[in-house]
Amino acid sequence: MIIxxxxxxxxxxxxxxxxxxxxxxATAAIGMAFTLQMVVISLGVGIGNGVNSxxxxxxxxxxxxxAENTILHxxxxxxxxxxxxxxxxxxxxxxxxxxxxxxxxxxxxxxxxLTIIFLFTPVNLxxxxxxxxxxGWGDTVSPMKFMLLGNIIxxxxxxxxxxxxxxxxxxxxQGAAWATGLGRAVSLLYVGYQMxxxxxxxxxxxxxxxxxxxxxxxxxxVGLPASVSQxxxxxxxxxxxxxxxxxxxxxxxxxxxxxxxxMVIFLPAIGISQAxxxxxxxxxxxxxxxxxxxxxxxGIGVAFSxxxxxxxxxxxxxx
Length: 319
Fold this sequence. Notes:
By secondary structure, the chain is mainly α. The protein has 10 helices and no strands.
């Protein structure tokens, strides 16, 4: 599960590696753009947490039909939220980054990149929610496979579309966005094939779909607080970029590199938290409350150990 979550966010890290070769302004642009992408990721992770928690609890209570209906509700939520975010992002991105001090070429780079990213937002959310569906069903391997496929596509297309290699058009920072979007689209196509043709993790019965407010409420009761807590990170990053405004693109580019390493370090802890959520849901639904406490404290211990080790590495090799 940790590996799957790394794949969810690694699109941005791969993009930064290649975009950094376009100069400090481009590096700063993709860093600032990520603060708004983080809002989308936060909502995707939050909704996903709500979905896998609701599914796992109902599976634990042997309510398989409710769990299956939750999958279709999850797709509906992802599409609606994705379309809303696309509209809001396209309409508000330029105003937001002007307030953060971006102008000239920096602002043009940011909006050129994000415009394409926002067009793929529904695809992104559907892919993230699909991953959570598998995890809620206890399958943590399949999400890793289709996320890996998307990352391979992204890694392959990034240099081709950014630098115009092998007769591909040279699109610069927009090439990174197209590579990311197409990688996610391929992931989603693979997921759709697995779900609707191979009936994994279960056979979906579209004709039995009934809109259920209890399912939507159950997903958001868990997912919304998780989304808001992660969005605070995005707000904090925006504030740092605002403070760095007087120091120019060099400072912004340096901060982009720093928080990239920082977020990589946090990924194992986030993956563990998702695993704890799923195991808690299964055991809570089955009435095994003593196991819930064991899962909780084991998760805290493992996450603390990993973070402490990571902190030690940073301290030792900081220079």
